[in-house]
Sequence to fold (204 residues):
Amino acid sequence: MFQQILTLGGIGLIAGLASLSSSSAASTTLGEGAYSIDSVHSSILFSAVHFNVSRFYGRFNDVEGEISFDPEHPEKSSIHIVVDAASVDTHDKKRDQHLSGPDFFAAKEFESLTFTSESVRVSREATDEAPLQLEVSGKLEMVGKKRDVTALVDLVGAGAGMGGSELVGFHTRFEINRTDWGMDTMVGPLSDAIEVTISVEANR
Fold:
């Protein structure tokens, strides 16, 4: 299924609201050690191969959620991401309407895509040559179906932001098969394999 090994420059993949914004994300009540995902400085991209000759890209514009991260105890980290399904954007209105419809994300029935971690372990300690890498396992839910995900997560960085805020960032690129979630429309002309890139910045 979606049991892919992801390489994140600091994760996340991927959760449920018909309308999300950076202001709503910032208003999330956070627990100790938690960061609120910044929708403005986070990106969720995807690409598919069209007729086996070209790759085109799209994105989801609205994301929110929470990351709990302690650099002293990274194995205690957790992540919950919410993506607004109706915010899909491929720079083509007709295609966006199709993707939001029942053949793909069925955004009216299933307003969000969510990822919730269930376990985290250190896959690689940070060195001068490579960042901290975590193996994150959890559930990705789309169109009402949950699938297991295991991801290798690289921490991009952490530090001070504007106004004394604390920032942390992660990034990933991985591949899923859309038919694992029942999205079997146009398989052939449009690839089953979908490449996903996620870059997440969070603050507190």
About this structure: Residues 1-29 have pLDDT under 50 and may be disordered.
